[in-house]
Design brief:
This protein is mainly α. It has one domain (about 1-70). It contains three helices and two strands; from the N terminus they run ααββα. It has helices spanning about 1-25, 30-40, 65-70, and strands at about 45, 50-55. The protein has a two-stranded antiparallel ribbon with strand order 1-2. β1 and β2 form a beta hairpin. α1 (about 1-25) crosses α2 (about 30-40).
């Protein structure tokens, strides 16, 4: 049971990474940084049941916002 939940979380995160890379032209490393910043500020929600991601507001799905996320330092 837990293995399938973990797999859906990974799938949702990979969907986000792929979408950011394809739509906005970010590298996989940059997309991962954006994901981590979005997680830190609770901008993104990962659905462990459906394996999808949602953003808390549609305005976050913008290249300028993602560029700002890249400027953040995540430790």
């Amino acid at each position: 049971m837990y293995k399938s939940i973990a797999q859906r979380i990974v799938n949702a995160e990979n969907n986000f990474l792929n979408a950011v890379s394809e739509q906005f032209g970010f590298s996989p490393e940059e997309a991962l940084t954006i994901l981590n910043v979005f997680k830190k500020y609770k901008i993104i929600k990962i659905d462990a049941i459906g394996g999808q991601f949602t953003l808390s507001h549609g305005a976050y799905w913008d290249k300028e916002v993602m560029n700002n996320a890249l400027a953040q330092k995540i430790n």
